Amino acid sequence: PLREASNLAAEPLASQILALSEGTIGEASILINMAAEYALKSGDEKIPSDSLKKSGYIPPEDRKKVAARI
Q1: pLDDT grade, residue 61 (50/70/90)?
Q2: Are 29 and 53 in contact (CB under 8 A)?
Q3: How far apart are CA 65 and CA 51, in angstroms?
Q4: Which of 2, 13, 18, 54 sits most deeply, having the most CB atoms within 10 A of its CB?
């Protein structure tokens, strides 16, 4: 667990999570878990907004594009 509150329901994190996860609960869960893991490895005690993009999470639409090229 992270020691500080990440305020995921507050802006701008809430909008970023919604956009990246494309509005699905399962994808939001995966994203938040990956961002939390990245934050911990980076020495952060909360999830900063840059952790969402740096976590390695790939949004569903981007995964579909990659799959379509194969």
Answers
A1: very high
A2: no
A3: 23
A4: 13
Q: What is the pLDDT of residue 70?
A: 84
Task: Decide if 14 contacts 55 (C-beta within 8 A).
Answer: no
Q: Are 17 and 52 in contact (CB under 8 A)?
A: yes
Which pTM does this prediction carry?
0.90
CA dihedral for 14, 25, 39, 61, sign (positive or negative)? negative
Q: Is 55 helix (H, G, I), strand (E, B) or coil?
A: coil
Give the integer Cα–Cα distance in Å for 50 and 63.
20
**What's the rounded Cα separation, in Å, for the pair 10 and 32?**
14
On whether the CB atoms of residues 61 and 34 are closer than 8 A, the answer is: no
The two tokens of residue 44 are: 């952060």
C-alpha 17/C-alpha 24 separation (Å) is 10
